Amino acid sequence: MSMSSILGSALSGLQAAQLGMRSASNNVANVNTPGYARSEIQQIARSSGGQGAGVEVTGISRVVDEFLVAASIRGSSDLGRAELVSEFLDRIQSQFGSTDEETSLFGRINQAFAGLAQAAADPTESVSRLTALSNLEEVFDEATRLSSEIRSMRNETDRRVQSTVERVNEIVAEFSTINGEMRALTANAMDTTGSENRQAELIDELSTYLDIRVEAQPDGRVFIKTQNGVSLLDNEQVKLDYVPAGTGAYGVEYGAITAQVSSSGARIDIGANIKSGELRGLMDLRDKHLPQIADELAELTSGVADALNAAHNDASAYPAPNALEGRNTGLIGSDVLRGSGEATIAITAGDGTLVDQIDLVFNAAGFTVNGTPGNSMNDLAALISAASPDVTATFANGELSLTASAGNGVATMQNEANPSSLGGRGLAHYFGLNDLVDSRRPGFFDTALTGTSAHGLAPGGELGFSIFAADGRKVQSITVPVAGASVNDMIAALNNPASGLGQYGTYAMDANGKLSFTPTAGYKNFNVSLASDTTQRGTTGLAFSQLFGVGDAARMARAETFEVSADIRSNTSLLAMAKLDIDGATVPGDLVLSAGDSRGGQALQGAVTASRTFNRAGSLTGGVSSVEEYAARLAGDVGSRAAVAERSLDSASAIQAATDQKRSDVEGVNMDEELARMTMYQQAYNASARLMQAAKEMTDTLLNMV
């Protein structure tokens, strides 16, 4: 071996040891750096002409296990989603509280009905009536607060979707910059571990926001796609776009997370391709969990109000009020009023004696008032007014009102043997003549209309629908204009498979005049959402969707519309604690109302346990239940969602921790190992230096011999 070969080998050894020392020292310096993967030098024996020629460092590489990295990315996405869902559902559960908390909605319902029981025990005691009404108002105030909180949380999730999308764009943009650096470093065979570590940090962060897969390229670049293959970064960066709605209102249509994927300007819905991560969690909360809970809350709140109104409308205050003013039913004067059963309107004196009575009998063709037939709403008001000089009935803007003559009062009662039924409710209950709980919009959607009823919608109005696939993609927008003259005509327009919703499902009306939607085969998991409604029925001010409960806004916003009647709150003697005593033998002058009668109060107290029909709402199936039972089901559903989310979080955390530990075992810096490597490289460096010294001495000896 020549002197030059010895020097070359020694020099290569010095260089290799120096690089090894640098690698080991960098590892030690980053022992506590999150996401840092240790680096090692790659070296091979160098030869020349078949003889050894020292050592060659072929590169410095990060120590990683690609399979563990992929598992960690998936785990990070699942954990990000689980953390968000658990956080919000835990917050909403804490807002609802438990059934045994006095300040929770459920506790307030219990207190309200307990207060009614106390008032019924002594119907003449004004303090107990005032307390009962105050407790009732707290129920509806709490429902309003909870609904407002849900809307606020929906708005919060929507804003966080926007901020997360912005951060994703920032990360992908930085990736694009690093890709350019990596390609240049790789082409020049330079150390890329610093850039690779930054890539790893960004991948770890990005994977918490959405589910991704990473594809390393031979030139050092990294391409990023969603798990199902939609590219976020390849040769070009894909920028995500999202415009928040700026509101959590029910019925609002949230935009899609889109991206331009070609030079032609074509855009795709990226949101539908996001299956995990914080973005998926936020969208699931905004579009699924929170609206479902809001729907259930609205159904409970309307159930409480309707149960109380059912009892209150079949009772009377003592003395009876001079006037009964009904709710906006959405009916118009020409509507034919069909039903069954019998009811009585009584005009009473201030001492509770009967002044006059009017008997109403309903049938499939219309009704009779004291035997005189009629069928329209205009007929009903006119015939009631004509039946007695002591009462005047008016019907305008969907509202029926009864006013007794001066000094007298008016009350109603159901026939016990054959109670009246209009859309499944008694006469006074349907019209809301003596409602204890008022609402600014329909609290129930049993309209008492039939398919042959005139729809009464002004020409030019239209309903707009958005159709969403099971994965959240918006697949179609459909506009259905007002058509024909009857409700059946309007239903046919909605169900038209070409111009309406018939491809996705059909509407049908039941015997009580309630519309229901049934998805067609293959579209069960599609969402048909009402986007707009410019219709109005006559002079009622009510749109088609509000009257029939079409769309989220009509159903869910009910939780915020109820309040105890202002008239009753200001005059507690109007609380209906008594009931009329009228039978076939009753004649004017007989006592039909008494001050000590508590039967009306007892009926109000019993409304909490009385069976009634609840509609399907959120994840709760419909059916016959009591207010008490349905409240327990709602509490159970909210608690169950939070518990399931917590278990999912625990599971995702455990999986991520195990994956991170295994990844750390491979990638992490072990101080003992690094110190041993430093010692080894130090010794190698010293040995190479001694070899160079020996070569120098040999060279000097040769030179001295000349």
TrEMBL record:
Cellular compartments annotated: Bacterial flagellum basal body; Secreted
Primary location: other
Residue intervals of the Flagellar basal-body/hook protein C-terminal domain: 668-705
InterPro entries: Flag_bb_rod_N, Flagellar_basal_body_rod_CS, Flg_bb/hook_C_dom, FlgK, FlgK_helical
Domain Flagellar basal body rod protein N-terminal: 9-36
GO biological-process terms attached to the record: bacterial-type flagellum assembly
UniProt cross-references to PROSITE patterns, sorted A to Z: FLAGELLA_BB_ROD
UniProt GO cellular component terms: bacterial-type flagellum basal body; bacterial-type flagellum hook; extracellular region
Pfam families linked: Flg_bb_rod (PF00460), Flg_bbr_C (PF06429), FlgK_D1 (PF22638)
GO MF annotation terms: structural molecule activity
Domain Flagellar hook-associated protein FlgK helical, residue spans: 91-314
Signal peptide: none
Keywords: Bacterial flagellum, Cell projection, Cilium, Flagellum, Secreted
UniProt cross-references to NCBIfam families, sorted A to Z: flgK_ends
Family designation: Belongs to the flagella basal body rod proteins family.
PANTHER family found in the cross-reference section: FLAGELLAR HOOK-ASSOCIATED PROTEIN 1 (PTHR30033)
Identification of the protein by name: Flagellar hook-associated protein 1
Taxonomy of the source species: Bacteria, Pseudomonadati, Pseudomonadota, Alphaproteobacteria, Maricaulales
